[in-house]
């Protein structure tokens, strides 16, 4: 559920196929004169076994990064802790924008508990308790490994990672939180198939995605309390403005996961509570990203 680049095909007339083939070969060979050289980076990856899901994290240090400001990155579904360094992912554009604009990047730590995970607090469902494990065990251990010099923490999550970022908004540990294309739904417990199909009608969510949502939620929600504990709209309505971070929220108006209407209500609720929100609606499908504004929000001041 991460952001995937989309490319338009070249027209198939006359010599255009030959031109396309030559361009493709040049790209593979790295011989295109206008290609921008990727900013160098230093990356270290670590792994820690359970209890529960094994934790993996990668620390990325870009040239000139601030060692005292740490950006915790929570990836999308079916990705891993190494995704920040993937040159085909949107994070490459963030790095280039920081470099080209002379902005100071933070130290980046990408967190992963596997291809699919939710930072749900302890509850009745079998896959809850990861929020406490991360905040009480993982975070202190990671920062000890960074040298204990952390002065400020930022948080970034896309898709599943955006949902997880919402779970940490009330911790008081993060000063800036960027939430991209997160699944935010106005639905009440019990979450039945009929209720899910109604969600499809209200949000434009695709049917196959709705079925996956309904099936997956059973691992994390077995009671009204479980759902209230992870509901983004409940979080927005109860967040203490005095402990709230600055929030960057973005979603595509044509998101096939049906995330837009919930994101719109989420930011409205936060604003009503006095939270500083930067809302970036985009005319895209799932996980279109406005790189310049996001890069500037996450740059170190």
Tags for this model:
301 residues, alpha/beta, Rossmann fold, eight-stranded mixed sheet, 8 strands
Write the layout of secondary structure elements.
Elements: H1 16-29, E1 42-48, E2 55-61, E3 66-74, H2 91-101, E4 106-112, H3 130-145, E5 152-158, H4 160-167, E6 176-180, H5 193-203, H6 207-217, H7 224-230, H8 232-238, E7 246-252, H9 260-272, E8 277-282, H10 291-298
Parallel strand pairs: 3-4, 3-5, 5-6, 6-7, 7-8
Antiparallel strand pairs: 1-2, 2-4
Helix pairs in contact: 2-10, 5-6, 8-9
Describe this structure in words.
The protein has 301 residues and is an alpha/beta fold. It has a single domain (39-298), classed as Rossmann fold, CATH 3.40.50. It has helices at 16-29, 91-101, 130-145, 160-167, 193-203, 207-217, 224-230, 232-238, 260-272, 291-298, and strands at 42-48, 55-61, 66-74, 106-112, 152-158, 176-180, 246-252, 277-282. Strands 1-2-4-3-5-6-7-8 form an eight-stranded mixed sheet, sandwiched between helices.
């Amino acid at each position: 559920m991460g952001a995937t680049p989309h490319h338009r095909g070249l027209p198939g007339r006359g010599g255009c196929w030959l031109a396309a083939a030559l361009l493709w070969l040049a790209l593979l060979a790295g011989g295109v004169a206008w290609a921008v050289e990727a900013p160098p980076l230093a990356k270290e990856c670590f792994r820690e076994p359970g209890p529960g899901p094994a934790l993996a994290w990668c620390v990325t240090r870009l040239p000139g990064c601030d060692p005292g400001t740490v950006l915790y990155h929570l990836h999308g579904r079916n990705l891993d802790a190494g995704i920040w360094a993937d040159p085909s992912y949107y994070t490459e554009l963030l790095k280039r924008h920081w470099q080209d604009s002379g902005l100071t990047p933070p130290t980046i730590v990408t967190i992963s508990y596997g291809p699919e995970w939710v930072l749900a607090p302890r509850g009745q469902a079998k896959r809850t308790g990861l929020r406490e494990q991360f905040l009480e065990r993982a975070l202190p251990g990671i920062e000890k490994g960074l040298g204990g010099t952390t002065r400020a923490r930022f948080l970034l999550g896309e898709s599943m990672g955006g949902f997880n970022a919402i779970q940490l908004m009330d911790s008081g540990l993060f000063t800036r939180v960027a939430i991209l294309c997160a699944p935010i739904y106005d639905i009440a417990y019990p979450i039945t198939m009929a209720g899910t199909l109604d969600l499809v009608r209200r949000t434009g969510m695709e049917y196959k995605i709705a079925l996956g949502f309904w099936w997956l939620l059973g691992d994390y929600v077995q009671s009204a309390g479980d759902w209230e504990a992870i509901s983004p709209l409940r979080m927005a309505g109860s967040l203490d403005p005095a402990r709230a971070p600055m929030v960057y929220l973005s979603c595509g108006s044509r998101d096939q996961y049906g995330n837009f209407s919930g994101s719109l209500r989420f930011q409205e609720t936060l604003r009503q509570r006095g939270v500083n929100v930067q809302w970036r609606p985009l005319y895209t499908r799932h996980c279109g990203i406005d790189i310049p504004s996001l890069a500037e929000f996450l740059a170190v001041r």
